[in-house]
Automatic annotation (TrEMBL):
Its EC number is 1.5.1.-. PANTHER family: BLR2425 PROTEIN, FLAVIN REDUCTASE LIKE DOMAIN-CONTAINING PROTEIN. The keyword Oxidoreductase applies. One of its GO terms (molecular function) is oxidoreductase activity. It comes from Seohaeicola saemankumensis. This is Flavin reductase family protein. The lineage of its organism: Bacteria, Pseudomonadati, Pseudomonadota, Alphaproteobacteria, Rhodobacterales.
Amino acid sequence: MFYQPKDGHGLPHNPFNAIVTPRPIGWISSRGKDGVDNLAPYSFFNAVAYTPPQVMFASTGTKPDRDGTKDSVANIIESGVFCVNIVEFAMRDAMNASSKTLPANVSEFDHAKLARAECETIACARVAAAPAALECRLTQIVQLEGEGNTLVLGEVTGVHMRDDCLVDGVFDVTTFRPLSRLGYRDYAVVTELFALSRPDD
């Protein structure tokens, strides 16, 4: 099968997200100028550079109370900071609950019944029990093609790792089983690892 997106795919559901998988989930926390802590999962997320460490996420769509964007992007534009919380399998239901569309003045931390902790290098909350969290300073916002498509890039200024996830000096993802996003309504969980040496090693 071949299709051009501009012409449609003719399938019951859009296959694009199912093709580009698995994708890590950026559970983005931010704080509005009103002091409300926002938390939302984004599956268009990844790390993009080592030195300095940098990450990106993309927000798609809009909210009626956010003038052409969503809470996360609006808050980040105001504050210049955000935090990426890593999602473990045990937090899948809380992550899903935080994806609900809520009024801008309602915190997803409260809706999902999640404890929060204050970040160290930025004025933002993080998910207290997350296996890891990346405190970030906004570096760029890029408006992408299409309505409400916004790319957010940030430099990592602080890194939290839960102590039980460190094994012999290695951040061991099998201790918490990270969640990843697939297509449709599907997710996957990492339970097994294997190693490959690069040809130049």
